[in-house]
Structures are given as C-alpha cells and as structure tokens.
Design a protein that fits this description.
About 30% of the residues lie in helices and about 25% in strands. By secondary structure, it is of the alpha+beta class. It folds into two domains: about 1-140, Fructose-1,6-Bisphosphatase, Chain A, domain 1, CATH 3.30.540.10; about 145-280, D-Maltodextrin-Binding Protein, domain 2. Residues about 265-300 have low confidence and may be disordered. This is Inositol-1-monophosphatase.
Length: about 300
Amino acid sequence: MLNVAVKAARAAGALINRASLDLDTVRVAAKQLNDFVTEVDHAAEAAIIDTLRSAYPEHGIWAEESGRREGKGKGRAYTWIIDPLDGTTNFIHGFPVYCVSIALMVEGRLEQAVVYDPTRNDLFTASKGRGAYLNDRRIRVAKRTQLRECLLSTGFPFRPGDAFQRYLQMLGDVMPRVAGVRRPGSAALDLAYVAAGFTDGFFELGLSPWDVAAGALLVTEAGGLIGNFTGEADFLERKECVAANPRIYGQLVGVLQRYSQFGAANARADAAPASDETASSTAAAPAPDTPATPAAGGRPSAADAPW
C-alpha cells in the first residue's frame, strides 16, 4: 500500500512541478479570505485519487478539496487522508515550500504515510512499526533535551475568525524560551522536518486532519510524540497540534497547555506564564532506539492515538 501511495504522491508532484513553471497562468480562487485553492490543487487531488482507486476501488477517501467518501465492502475499514498541495499560498507566490501529503488510516489507526516535497524531490515515508524514512534513509527526531536550545516551527492564523490575539500571546510565551521559531507555511512538511530532526518541535492551531495525518505517523515512527496542547493523543480533529521528541514534547506541553481549549483543569491563557522550571518538570524520558511508545498521564495514550 505504501508503494501505491508513493506512486500517487509522485504523480501529483509532477503536476505541481509543471504548473510551477508558469504560475501566471494558474487559476486561483479563494475559499474564504486568505484561504486559496487553485486548479493545481484539484488536478493533483484527482491524480492521487485515481491512482489510489485504481489499486483499491473500495477504500474510503478523505480529501481536502473533494471531501469524504466512505469505503465500501471490505474497504470500509480503510480511509486515505489526502492533502494534494499543502502550502497553496506558498505555491501561488512561487515560494518553494509546499508538499503532497497522503496517509492511510485503517480502523481509526494511521498505518501508512507519504509526504512528498516536489521542489526538492524529497520523499518522506513511514509504515506503522517499520520506522520513518527520507529518500530511503532512516530518520529520527532530534536529540536535544533543553527547550532553550531548540528550533521550532509553527503556523500563523490567517482565516477570518482565527484566534489571532490568543496566538500572539502563545507565540510571545514560546519565543523567549527557544533558540528560534520558523513559519515555513506547510504543516505536513513541518512535521516531516520534526521527524527528520531538521527542527526540534512544531505547534499550531486550526489544522485539519489532512494537514497532519501523514506527518503524525512520520513523527511517531521517528521516535517522537504528537498530541494536542494538553499532551493527549486526541489531536487529529481537534485543531491543535504539538510534536517533538519526548523530552522537548513534555516541555512544550508545559508551556502550551494553558492555550488549549480542552481540559477544565488546565490553566487558561489569562493565567500567569509558566516558569521554565515548571515547563521542564513535565519532560518525558529520552527517545529510545525504537519508535517511542507514548506514556499515560497527560501524554498521548497508545489506546487513544490514531497511530
């Protein structure tokens, strides 16, 4: 199944690369203010779905542009989660940070993942229990243990109704505690970079399942943790996501949990900022040589996680 997903991602990537050579001719529409879709998104999604359906006609599809279609018969347990062009705003401006994201969920568990960066021909893949890879080379999350040494990535709110002031407060809480924060503009690629150890962690609000599904499996198969801002594994449809290696994950959750919409016991955004000592006290054990198994008690639970 992973090979079919790779074939689909490369087909979409080829369409995207051809279109990028003449961006002035690409038709762009706005789903809402600052939320764009192009004919390339639609064409790439169609190419992905055609490839997947040719191999697995009964499987379900959950795609950003065309919506959700349940599987049939024996394929009801299988759902492909697709973002054909994650980073559309970057693409239409010629800013070369965007990707194709494809994940397979089987009975509610993420089993296969592909994130393909067509501008660099970088192919990130993962299969449940078999590790994560970049261009056939095994990848692992970074080994840093102190938040102050970390480079993080994030995304800014950009749609009407997004909690911009809440995000600014959160960013102001995080930035003094880390070495740097970057905003590349593609959540799926951000998570792939966490898995590869290029960045140490990631956090963002307002994400959809197709933004994070493939990247989530990459992170966990590379030895990292991913969850919502309370540290729990229920993140896929919760519109808040944090990912990092286990030690940094614990420290990030200590800072971010007051900005979560979940958990009545959590401190809220109007609470006093947590101290570095408080954030550090939530740190987990170092990442093992095999993909990390999230612990209970505020960490992603294996029973609840979609991976």
